[in-house]
Amino acid sequence: MSKPIVLVGMMGSGKTTVGKRLAKKLSVEFVDTDDLVVAQAGKSVRDIFGDNGEVEFRRLESLAVREALARNGAVIAAAGGTVLSAENRTLMSEQARCVVWLDADLSTLVQRTARGAHRPLLDAQPEERLTAMDAQRRSLYESVADVRIDTANKQIDVVVDEVLAVVEKAHAS
């Protein structure tokens, strides 16, 4: 049984885009924890936040992390806030082959997240919210990650190759 590869980082760091390409390159399943939450709840992330609040979303997110980690050899894009839970961080550290922190500077994150309407935490003052979330989460990403890769100003395939090199190195040791 092959352990999964987990990508962590702020929204807009490239987890889903990089994860899909990495999974295709490795011929394994791609799993986005947000997709699992949506499937479990039967409604969008935005609707979960609106109808049930962030606490319920985080509960569902933790269930999704467990489910994703149980998938043999998958590439997992862990939602940006999964690191807020100590239990999630422990599970990822213990059960993943490699945890890769995809990071980018604030201006890159603001630019990338402006394209999506599915981010309820960024409805008001997105730059300020991203700054606050980054300050809250940066040390948590660092604590759980085996490696940090900067995704700003890089082509997706370059980032995928960097992640692949890290994973291959981790697998060899």
Structure write-up:
This protein is 58% helix and 12% strand. The protein has one domain (5-165): P-loop containing nucleotide triphosphate hydrolases (Rossmann fold, 3-Layer(aba) Sandwich), CATH 3.40.50.300. The radius of gyration is 15 Å and the shape is globular. The two termini are 17 Å apart. The chain is α/β, with parallel strands linked by helices and 173 residues long. The protein has a 5-stranded parallel sheet with strand order 2-3-1-4-5, with helices on both faces. The chain has helices spanning 15-26, 33-41, 45-69, 86-95, 106-113, 126-144, 156-172, and strands spanning 5-8, 30-32, 75-77, 98-103, 147-150. The longest helix is centred in the N-terminal third of the chain and has 25 residues, at 45-69.
